[in-house]
Amino acid sequence: MGSRFGGLKQVEPVGPAGELIIEYSAHDACNAGFGRVVFVIRRDIEREFRAAIGRRIEARMDVAYAFQDLENLPPPFAPVQGRTKPWGTGHAVLAAESLVRSPFAVINADDFYGAAAYRLLAAHFGAVAAEVPGGRPVYALIGYPLRQTLSEHGTVNRGICATDASGRLIGIDEVLKIERMPDGGARHPMPSGEPRVLKGDELVSMTCFGFLPGFFGQLRGLFAGFLARNGQSQTAEFYLPVAVGSLLQSGSAEMRVLRSEDEWFGVTYREDVPAAREALRRLIDRGAYPDRL
Fold first, then answer.
1. Is 107 among the domain residues?
2. 62 lies in a domain?
3. What is the pTM of this model?
4. Cβ 22 vs Cβ 110: under 8 Å
5. Is residue 27 part of a domain?
6. Has residue 5 got a pLDDT over 50?
7. Can you tell me the distance from the alpha carbon of 114 to that of 289, in angstroms, rounded to the nearest whole number?
8. pLDDT single digits (tens) 7-55
9. CA 215 to CA 247: how far, in whole Å?
10. Strand pairing category for 62-67 and 36-41
């Protein structure tokens, strides 16, 4: 909904010909071998979304729409009377289950990830398909150096990745109110009020995941457990990173962190838009994208 942005971020033009961030994501994904885009949206905005965003992609790729409905709960759970808040990002992914039959990526529609993210995920899918079947599923997460993801116009929340020596994800530390420092590092307040200093090269998750189709079954089970604990809540959310963390802790899956050196940017604040446009202009000038996408 773009509460900090003050409007619908997804329709803010950033390219020189009025392109949207999601158009660059679709372009990069298509070039890496992805064949379909599934938009997860609210049913009540379908007509407006198709007109403003969907049809721009439909002209070039196979597009499907999934709807994140509050009433879409597994039995025996019933909708919560009076609840208006969506059930969270994990529930949003579940909404797309009937439309996905192959390895897939999950991204935020208003974040620019760079072409390398999709190439890394495509290569990962090829590698895990060649592994001996019967083991734990191996998923992937694209990690970005923290300094590449900070805003000049306010604090941000980031999930800092902890990995083992082989690059497998151990956990994600959700850190709030991170601010950029002049030396390229960052800091954030601890619960005690004292600042914690970060170097800036810590890998962070920007919600760019790669999953196999079997992930849906695992996610359904975790969502049922979440509803057993929170099914009457007006505000509790089933977060995708928390679900992933549960699978890692139980040994039901592993996740490899793939480092991207590409520039990441988003539009958390309206003041971030000029910087996003400048970043795309630099990429176009380097030949990464055409003037008209």
1. yes
2. yes
3. 0.90
4. yes
5. yes
6. no
7. 11
8. 566 678 899 999 999 999 999 999 999 999 999 999 988 998 899 889 9
9. 10
10. parallel
Structural domains in the chain (count): 1
Find out whether 30 and 39 touch, Cβ atoms under 8 Å: no
The amino acid present at 136, given as its one-letter code, is R
Tokens 């975790």 locate to 222
Q: What is the DSSP letter of 168?
A: B
CATH number at residue 126: 3.90.550.10
Give whole-number Cα distances, 275 to 18, 107, 223, 265, in Å.
15, 21, 38, 9
DSSP 206-275: EEEEEE-TTHHHHHHHHHHHHHHHHTT-SS----HHHHHHHHHHHTS-EEEEEE--S--EE-SSGGGHHH
Q: How far apart are the C-alpha atoms of 12 and 267, rounded to whole Å?
A: 9
Is 29 within a domain? yes
In 146-238 the beta strands, taken as DSSP E runs, fall at 156-163, 169-180, 186-189, 195-198, 203-211
Secondary structure class of 105 (helix, strand, coil):
strand
Q: Which residue has the tokens 């592993």?
A: 254
Domain that holds residue 78: 9-285
Which structure tokens are listed for 291?
A: 């003037």
Q: What span, in angstroms and rounded, lies between the C-alpha atoms of 86 and 238? A: 9
